[in-house]
Design goal:
9 helices; three-stranded mixed β-sheet; 13-stranded mixed β-sheet; globular; 3 domains; Phage tail protein beta-alpha-beta fold; 346 residues; 31% helix
Length: 346
Amino acid sequence: MNEASKPVEGPEDAPLDPFEAAAYWHGVFEDGGPAAGQRERFEEWLAADPRHRAAYASVEYAWAGMASAGVEDRILSMRREALAAPRNSRAGWLRAGAGAASIVVAVAVVVGIMVIHGPLGGHSGAREFATHVGERSSITLPDGSTVVLDTISRIEVAFDPKVRLVRLLAGQAWFEIAKNQIRPFVVEAGDRMVTAHGTAFDVRIEENDRIQVTLVEGRVSVEALNVGGAGPAILAEREDLLPGDQLTFTARRPITKHKVDVAKATSWREGRIVFDNDTLANAVAEVNRYSIKKIILADPRLASLRMSGVFIAGHSESFVETVTGNFPIKVISGAPGGELLLTAAD
């Protein structure tokens, strides 16, 4: 018996399909909350198999979508009746009014699967996710892995029977990979291929085509992917990373690898931007990623000033207040494009 078919204490103490069990648990938490001991059993079920977590995330996503579209009160009432039905037999749980509620659950599951596996362009079974300026988005993949997208970021997810492939097309993404999987998990960014080995890492593509890979835990290998010829792709220049390593490379410059402050490098996941003796030019560029209202250094002499601090992503005004309060800098507002112009105060 595999983990996905183990008995789940809750609806009827009988084996359940992961999506059916996920739908049941979702109903427990949405309609009145869990009874004594149920939360512990739910956590055990969730941790037993990555497919359980992925199934539960799909049901949550789908039910939220149906709720926003509006679901008849009659259907919601029947769903609640199903949850209140006797739990001593599977047949009892699914008969009469409970059967209609299970239909709603089935619809939610199908919608959830389509959200993750829906077709995209010419890639069969692929799906694209994206964020706008200032947005962050957390995505649970079919295998239970998690991806968090930073501002103005875009990925394409293309799982198949041989590989779990994610293409980072723009921006920055955090990956926490489900362990104990047979298929390799690969992230493609530019002309590089990052292969994860049960790990957590961050990948970023910058405007000048610079790619940055930061390893938080576990192990990853980064390889150059030569796709120029008509023949098969050739892998070369393999680099293995240890926790705390950051690999940076462009098409025109050699690879550099060094240790970094992981908390600083991944602070964006909590909506924070951390600077530690960074140049003002780099700080302004980073702050601008999260805000529609841009800051412009109107005086090039300011670019090399050094600063440190912690800021909330998207709050350009508070950043400007800090800079003008600690340096001989003034802000000129009212620019035609709404930008905040910084210039020397003298």
